[in-house]
Design goal:
It is built from 17 helices and 21 strands. By secondary structure, it is of the alpha+beta class. The longest helix has 21 residues.
């Protein structure tokens, strides 16, 4: 029997799901099952989140891997914690050295955009601080999937094929990418839906990470292999870069939006884009979602938020302004006053003078985690550590070689970072975690999903399934194919250059878990992917 797993001729949607003792929402059914397995063994929401994240590194290699970065917001025993596990640039890199190699900008692939991966240290740090179980217990499902194999799902197969087609053209004849081709493009093809794939090299690395509390990755066997390959192929890493790396525990930042506190990780992450936009939009009243004025004001607010973030946001130690100023009510009112009846372009403004895979978990005790990790652009840098299955992110691609830019490349610096977990509270009580993965779509997805929930009263599943729009650059926006054609025309008349996209895969993939007053969890997961909710 032959069939196309992506063809769905009949309109359908999921319902929000309800559970009492725990819930896992992720973009992979196998990863959600891994998290639920850990809950059943006595793990808490943090244990389940790490198990799910590690499994996603195996079962969704098109988006993340063992060389990813990560961020998390943890609600544990009625308190909120933030984790920034983004990497730093090698200490030996510099603008002059990159330019001496013939580059006028940071390349997208290869060793130059690779930064120190944060995900393995994030897993160990989260378990060490909050876990009920040991790291070997928590990583066991991921190790099993890597060693024994798993069937490729429909959307994963589609994305894998898309990226392999691109990668084979881009990497042909370049020795530094040979391991990527061997691991992910065997015989020049991507696996089809239903094919069984195995990653024994990843299993080996996961065991080393588990049994050494991630030290093997940062100062032991894996670290030495990373340095050896970097030095052989023209990278800038030294053992000191890996050995000195640590995660940052941070205080999440927030704005109050119509009685709800919306929490994000502070810069270098771009969660502040969502908060700037909400701080502007709360100065308006929105009665209807499918309304020209609603979309117009959302479009203008997100352009303003990105203008501010892209001008100023970088490593917080390098920022020239206090980012808290963007979140003040007076600044939101000031920026809101700039929005008229037609589309405009905006410049970033100093506030003192008046911008991947996601999962969320919950346990029987009310603890919850909002977690995200990413290789940035599909498989990342294209660099895979030989015999260890570690695919490295290309987060440094966002650095600038312009010395005047806020996000200019510097040794040991963190870059502007796109991945952002979100969390919602009300009157000091947890409502729950939410997130939408997808590069610069992420803060836009946060904004749209939150307004769908808070302003327009949609249930969590409908809040995720609703058609989305996306700012791309300048004045330009795209919308999903399901978007109302008349609304597109009306927005164009307001001065918005709007293009109807040909696919749904560039508009993010999200998950939500809300906790009701009686303690029941309600969960929703993205209909645009192979996502799944595991609960009991």
């Amino acid at each position: 029997m032959k069939f196309d797993t992506l063809v769905q001729p009949y309109s359908n949607s999921r319902y929000s799901l309800f559970a009492r003792n725990g819930m896992i929402c992720s973009s992979s059914p196998l990863a959600s099952a891994a998290g639920l397995e850990i809950l059943a063994k006595g793990g808490n929401a943090v244990d389940a989140a790490v198990a799910t994240a590690a499994t996603l590194a195996v079962t969704e290699p098109t988006s993340n891997g063992l060389g990813s970065d990560a961020f998390a917001i943890v609600w544990m025993k009625d308190k909120l914690y933030g984790l920034n596990a983004s990497g730093r640039a090698p200490k030996e890199i510099s603008i002059d050295k990159v330019k001496a190699l013939g580059y006028d900008a940071i390349p997208k692939r290869g060793w130059i955009p690779v930064m120190v991966p944060g995900a393995p240290k994030a897993w160990a740090s989260l378990i060490g601080r909050f876990g009920n179980l040991s790291l070997p217990e928590v990583l066991a499902p991921a190790i099993r999937y890597a060693q024994d194999g798993y069937p490729v799902s429909a959307v994963l197969s589609y994305l894998w094929n898309k990226y392999v087609t691109r990668g084979l053209k881009e990497y042909e004849g370049k020795a530094e990418f040979s391991e990527w081709i061997r691991l992910f493009a065997k015989e020049g093809e991507a696996p089809s839906a239903g094919d069984i794939v195995r990653f024994p090299d990843m299993a080996k690395s996961l065991k080393l990470i588990a049994n050494t509390d991630a030290k093997a990755f940062y100062e032991g066997e894996i670290a030495r292999k990373i340095i050896e390959q970097s030095q052989r192929d023209g990278g800038f890493f030294t053992l000191e870069d890996l050995r000195d790396y640590d995660v940052d525990w941070v205080d999440p930042i927030s704005v109050n939006y119509r009685g709800y506190d919306v929490w994000e990780i502070p810069p270098n992450g771009q969660g502040i884009v969502t908060l700037i936009a909400l701080n502007i939009l709360k100065n308006f009243t929105f009665d209807k979602k499918e309304c020209l004025d609603t979309y117009h004001k959302q479009f203008e607010a997100i352009k303003i938020a990105f203008a501010d973030a892209q001008k100023f946001v970088t490593d917080p130690q390098e920022m020239t302004v206090d980012y808290h100023g963007f979140l003040q009510e007076d600044y939101g009112k000031y920026r809101a006053s700039m929005i008229g009846d037609t589309a405009k372009s905006y410049e970033g403004t100093d506030p003192s003078s008046c911008g991947t895979v996601y999962l969320c978990t919950a346990d029987k005790d009310g603890n919850m985690v909002s977690y995200i990790q990413s290789n940035y652009m599909d498989f990342g840098s294209g660099i895979v550590i030989e015999d260890y299955g570690v695919s490295l992110q290309n987060r440094g691609y966002d650095f600038s070689l312009d010395p005047k830019a806020a996000n200019v490349l510097k040794p040991g610096k963190k870059s502007y970072h796109t991945i952002i977990p979100g969390f919602l509270t009300k009157d000091g009580k947890a409502v729950g975690p939410f997130g939408v993965m997808g590069g610069y779509m992420q803060p836009q997805g946060h904004l749209q999903v939150l307004m769908n929930l808070i302003d327009f009263g949609l249930n969590p599943q409908m809040a995720l399934d609703a058609p989305r729009w996306q700012w791309t650059h300048g004045m330009d926006f795209t919308v999903e194919p399901r978007f109302d054609p008349q609304m597109v025309e009306d927005l164009r008349k307001r001065g918005h250059p709007v293009t109807v996209s040909e696919n749904y895969y560039s508009y993010g993939r999200g998950q939500i878990i809300w906790r009701l007053e009686n303690g029941t969890y309600v969960g929703a997961t993205e209909s645009r992917t192979d996502s799944n909710i595991a609960c009991y």
